[in-house]
Amino acid sequence: MRKINLGSGPASARGWVNYDWGLMPFLGKYRLVSILVWLKILGREYDWCWPKIELVDIRGELPNEDKSVDYIYCSHVLEHFEKSEAVAILKECKRVLKDKGLIRIVLPDLNKIVKNYSEADSFNREFFGYDKDKYLGLLGSLKKVFIREHKWMYDSKSARRLLSEAGFKNIRLCSYRKGAVPNIDKLDLEQHRKISLYLEAGGKKTK
After folding, report:
1. What values do phi and psi take at 110, rounded to 5?
2. How would you list the strands of the sheet with 54-55, edge to edge?
3. Is the dihedral of CA 44, 48, 49, 55 positive or negative?
4. Where are the domains positioned within the chain?
5. Residue 100: count of CB within 10 angstroms of its CB
6. CB-based contacts of 90, cutoff 8 Å, min separation 6
7. pLDDT of res. 42
8. How far apart are alpha carbons 126 and 116 in whole angstroms?
9. C-alpha dihedral over 126, 78, 175, 186, to 10 degrees?
10. Which superfamily, per CATH, for 3-110+151-202?
11. Using one digit for the tens of pLDDT, what is the confidence trace for 100-152?
C-alpha cells in the first residue's frame, strides 16, 4: 500500500512517504533546525523532530506513476499556494491515485475563522498564517524567510469546488480524525482542530 503525505512538514505517521519542499523541510531533513533555534533565529516552537523527508516540489510532477498511490494526505498546505497552483497540485494527485484511492485535505476554514473572531490580532494571524506585525527589522526579515504565508483561503463550498475542478468525485465533508483515510488519529493535529475543515474525495464515481 502506497501512502503519501503531501507537504508533510514535521507531522507524519508510520508507513507514509513524506513529500515537502523549501528551506524548513531542507533543514528538517538534515536536522539543522535546532541550530537556528539555539541561535534564536527561530523560536522554540519550531524545534520539531522531523520524520524522514523526500524533498519534492509538489508544484511540479510527483515522482509516482499513474494510478500507483492508495492514499494521499494533505494538511494545511494548499492555502499556501495561489488557487490556480492548488488546482494543478490536486490534478497531479488525481493522476497518481488509484481508481479506488482517496485523498484527504485539511484546510483552514475561513467560515470558522470568521465565526471564532474575538479580536483583530488573532484573526490576522489565522488569516495570514503568521504574526505579520512581529517580523520587523533585519532579524524579522531573516525570520520571514522561513515563513510560508497564506495565499488563498477556503470555506467548505469553495474547497469542494477546488477538488471538483481538479477532477475528483465523491467529495465529502468529514471531521477531525473521522474519515476513511488511515492513520488520521496521528495525522490530524489537535492544534488545527478549531479552525480546520476536513474533506475526502476519490477518483471515480461509485455505482
Report:
1. -60, -35
2. 54-55, 17-20, 3-6, 69-75, 97-108, 196-202, 169-174
3. negative
4. 3-110+151-202
5. 11
6. 78, 103, 162, 163, 165, 166, 167, 168
7. 80
8. 10
9. -100
10. Vaccinia Virus protein VP39 (3.40.50.150)
11. 999 999 999 999 999 999 999 999 999 999 988 888 888 788 888 888 999 99
